[in-house]
């Protein structure tokens, strides 16, 4: 079966496949491509000049032509594969040879925009997009040197592309090779970041993300320079950073655009915020239920007053309230922006007010919950924020059982859990600022 | 393997929950937290009063009086527990008032009981009252309703009593009773029509019994000698017309051994500000008057205490290290009364009040310097 017939056959199954014929200098050519991927009207001119040019050039020595943009005979299946990647085949009917070119593609990717999830006040305002080529370009424009190298691999039926960035001299290359191999060897389809976790052999139920996502090229570049491994998954508009460390919870590279004194106080503020987010609800339960003697008497009386008609123990009370806040947070994420504001008002203000007036929870608890929720927002990465959101419940449960003692035990349990986490031999809690190279063999 | 691991985790969590006994704990709103305990004796029975803050939403905070009688203090507290529905949590007691007649009989046993009780802290302030306990407590509550906050003032260390008050904690009383070389003075307080608390001075305890009473000035001197931190805003009246404010003070104890005799020189140094004075007095007069007065009063206080074999000034404590355990047993009765005490006072007037005082020679000095 010749080429034309095969294409016709394919056209029956894919209605968006286009084949257009054109005669240039008396030779008939067929231009084949997916209408959904290729902007034909813009490509047309390009095809014409290219073909004319090629004709003239064909008399010249062969060495000048690059391998990819020259007329040659190819297997049909290979040609078809390039079609799916968004290329266009120009078929010479007489010579039965084809030329594969990169056409003007349909605008399927959004342009570079302002970051949505990680907003910065002072710092670069560009963000990664779904197109990993564009993302690599963003990074290259930030580090204009021959030291930056890119390795790619493709995986699975989806033919998903993973691109790894290597900074010569800083990135451990055998580490990158190993990670690349892990992805290549993974038998199932890699759909989400969770699958990457599984492919790397990390526990699915880990409380801490080993693979961090960042939206900011500035941050990604900084991470590469720290020796972390940054890679892109096509279609995922974040850079994936391997070796998330405990310092990333309260430090981010764009902080350094401020005054140093302010930056250090900012770190301090974030550490305090982390403390509040994790410890405060537990402390409330411990102090109210089991160890009220640790409160100052005036404070104890105020709390007694506000808890006067609350019918259930502090543990139930705080679980109800935390649940409510989680619901509000999740609802605000799901809903369109214009409606999610309403959720904030209804959930936060009206419900908070009404629930206290109905004596279902105490007023002091509302303050605690508000402080916790606000403090949770100060944490640098959203994924790290999720970690702390979960940890808080562990502390609450321990506090409800053993009071202040349990509070400390819960903290200890969490600390030991964090301390034992490693990814590829690199501990999560690392004091060393510079990188991963020396610690990992 | 994997299943085994989960079973272990589940079992440990179940055990954790069962062992915690968390269902036995009561929330803060089901507990009463008394802030003051009054103890008297009523015909062989201990009579214990508790003041419990009662808080009702949207109303002013109020105080409630509960009392109970029993053969022992714990029994009396148990009687109170029967009367009210909530758990009584003695952890917040900040103030223990004892009837003075108990002090005459000896409070050693009571203090021991308090120290033994696990839910009673060792930190509440201890005081005696000479009034009838029932009316005293009523008066306190009444004043509180009239004025508002005062009773909580005693729980605030910063807002505490001034230097006239020998504020002592329960553990200090316990120490004072059982130490070989030191005793303790407990303040005497009373309710008053206008002031919610008024102090008459302090009772000196020896082995848990009151042996002597100190008046307000003596208490002040005692505090000055005992290195109480805060002397700021302390006014000392020298005579009817003169008053000085202390800014700084320094005390030094100088012991000298002459064979069996111990000579002690207490050197007191003061920096002060003239607060009120007649015009005809100049700085030196005031200074001299002050020095004489403090020296006389201090000596008198020391003699008075030495006569009663009670040491609240820490005189014996400072040389305790030179004696064996056996010698210390009778130290207060044998050695302490025979210590020869001398007092030297040195006062400096830092500021005479920033008013123009014609009697002062400030200007003359200045003129002289100019002429030279």
Automatic annotation (TrEMBL), chain A:
The UniProt entry's GO CC annotations, sorted and at most eight, read: plasma membrane
Instruction: Report if keyword Ribonucleoprotein is assigned.
Output: no
Q: Which UniProt keywords apply?
A: Membrane, Transmembrane, Transmembrane helix
GO-annotated biological processes: spore germination
User: Where is the protein situated, by its record's location annotation?
Assistant: Cell membrane; Membrane
The membrane-topology field of this record reads: Multi-pass membrane protein
Q: Does the keyword Membrane apply?
A: yes
Membrane-spanning ranges: 229-250, 262-290, 310-328, 335-355, 361-382, 394-419
Alphabetical list of Pfam families matching this protein: GerA
The UniProt similarity line reads: Belongs to the GerABKA family.
According to UniProt, the name of this protein is Spore germination protein XA
TrEMBL record, chain B:
Q: Which Pfam family, any one, appears in the UniProt record?
A: Spore_GerAC
Where this protein primarily resides, as one coarse class? membrane
Question: Where do the Spore germination protein N-terminal domain residues begin and end?
Answer: 24-190
| Stretches assigned to the Spore germination GerAC-like C-terminal domain | 201-353
The biological process GO terms on file are:
spore germination
Give the keywords, sorted. Answer: Germination, Lipoprotein, Membrane, Palmitate, Signal
Which PROSITE patterns does the entry link to? PROKAR_LIPOPROTEIN
Q: Name one GO cellular component term.
A: membrane
What compartments host this protein?
A: Membrane
Work out whether the entry's keyword set contains Membrane.
yes
Its placement in the membrane is given as: Lipid-anchor
Its family remark reads:
Belongs to the GerABKC lipoprotein family.
Q: What is this protein called?
A: Spore germination protein B3
């Amino acid at each position: 079966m010749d080429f034309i017939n095969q294409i016709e056959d394919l056209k029956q199954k894919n209605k968006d496949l286009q084949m257009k014929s054109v005669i240039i200098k008396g030779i008939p050519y067929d231009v084949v491509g997916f209408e959904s991927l290729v902007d034909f009207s813009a490509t047309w001119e390009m095809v014409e000049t290219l073909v004319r040019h090629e004709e003239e050039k064909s008399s010249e020595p062969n060495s000048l032509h690059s391998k990819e943009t020259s007329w040659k005979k190819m297997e049909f299946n290979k040609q078809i594969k390039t079609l799916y990647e968004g290329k266009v085949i120009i078929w010479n009917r007489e010579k039965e040879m084809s030329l594969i070119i990169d056409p003007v593609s349909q605008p399927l990717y959004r342009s570079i925009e302002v970051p949505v999830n990680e907003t910065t006040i002072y710092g670069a305002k560009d963000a990664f997009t779904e197109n990993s080529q564009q993302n690599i370009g963003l990074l290259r424009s930030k580090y204009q040197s021959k030291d930056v190298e890119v390795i790619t691999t493709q995986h699975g039926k989806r033919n998903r592309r993973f691109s790894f960035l290597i900074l010569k001299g800083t990135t451990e290359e055998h580490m990158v090779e190993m990670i690349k191999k892990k992805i290549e060897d993974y038998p199932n389809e890699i759909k989400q970041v969770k699958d990457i976790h599984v492919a790397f052999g990390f526990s699915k139920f880990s409380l801490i993300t080993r693979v961090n996502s960042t939206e900011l090229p500035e941050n990604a570049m900084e991470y590469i320079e720290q020796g972390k491994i940054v890679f892109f998954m096509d279609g995922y508009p974040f850079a994936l950073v391997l070796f998330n460390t405990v310092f990333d919870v309260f430090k981010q590279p764009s902080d350094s655009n401020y005054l140093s004194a302010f930056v250090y106080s900012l770190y301090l503020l974030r550490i305090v915020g982390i403390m509040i987010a994790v410890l405060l609800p537990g402390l409330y339960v411990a102090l109210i239920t089991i160890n009220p003697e640790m409160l100052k008497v005036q404070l104890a009386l105020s709390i007694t007053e506000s808890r006067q008609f609350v019918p259930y123990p502090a543990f139930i009370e705080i679980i109800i309230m935390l649940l409510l806040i989680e619901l509000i947070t999740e609802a605000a994420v799901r809903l369109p922006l214009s409606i999610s504001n309403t959720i904030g008002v209804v959930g936060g203000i009206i419900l908070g007010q009404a629930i206290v007036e109905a004596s279902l929870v105490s007023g002091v608890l509302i303050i605690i919950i508000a402080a916790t929720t606000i403090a949770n927002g100060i944490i640098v990465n959203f994924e790290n924020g999720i970690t702390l959101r979960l940890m808080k419940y562990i502390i609450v449960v321990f506090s409800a059982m053993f009071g202040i003692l349990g509070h400390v035990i819960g903290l200890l349990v969490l600390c030991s859990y964090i301390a034992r986490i490693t990814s590829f031999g690199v501990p999560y809690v690392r004091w060393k600022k510079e990188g991963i190279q020396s610690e990992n063999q | 393997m994997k299943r085994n691991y989960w079973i272990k985790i589940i079992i440990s969590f179940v055990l954790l929950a069962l062992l915690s006994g968390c269902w036995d704990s009561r929330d803060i709103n089901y507990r009463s937290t008394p802030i003051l305990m009054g103890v008297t004796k009523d015909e062989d029975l201990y009579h214990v009063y508790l003041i419990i803050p009662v808080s009702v939403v949207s109303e002013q905070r109020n105080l409630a009086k509960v009392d109970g009688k029993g053969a022992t203090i714990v029994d009396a507290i148990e009687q109170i527990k029967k009367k009210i529905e909530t758990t009584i949590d003695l952890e917040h007691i900040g103030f223990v008032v004892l009837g003075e007649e108990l002090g005459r009989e000896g409070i050693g046993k009571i203090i021991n009981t308090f120290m033994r009780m696990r839910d009673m802290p060792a930190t509440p302030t201890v005081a005696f009252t000479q009034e009838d306990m029932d009316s005293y407590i009523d008066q306190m509550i009444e004043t509180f309703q009239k004025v508002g906050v005062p009773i909580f003032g005693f729980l605030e260390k910063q807002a505490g009593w001034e230097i006239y008050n020998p504020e002592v904690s329960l553990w200090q009383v316990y120490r004072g009773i059982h130490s070989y070389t030191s005793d303790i003075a407990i303040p005497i307080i009373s309710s008053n029509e206008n002031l919610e608390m008024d102090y008459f001075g302090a009772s000196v305890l020896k082995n848990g019994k009151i042996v002597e009473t100190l008046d307000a000035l003596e208490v002040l001197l005692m505090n000055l000698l005992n290195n109480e931190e805060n002397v700021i805003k302390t006014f000392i009246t020298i005579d009817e017309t003169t008053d000085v404010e202390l800014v700084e003070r320094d005390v030094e104890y100088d012991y000298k051994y002459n064979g069996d005799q111990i000579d002690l020189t207490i050197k007191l140094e003061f920096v002060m500000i003239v607060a009120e004075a007649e015009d005809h007095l100049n700085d030196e007069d005031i200074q001299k008057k002050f020095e004489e007065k403090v020296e006389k009063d201090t000596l008198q206080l020391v003699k008075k205490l030495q006569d009663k074999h009670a040491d609240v000034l820490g005189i014996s404590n400072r040389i305790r290290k030179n004696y064996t355990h056996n010698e210390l047993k009778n130290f207060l009765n044998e050695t302490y009364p025979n210590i020869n005490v001398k007092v030297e006072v040195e006062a400096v007037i830092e500021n005479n009040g920033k008013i123009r005082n014609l009697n002062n020679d400030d200007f003359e000095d200045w003129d002289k310097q100019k002429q030279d």
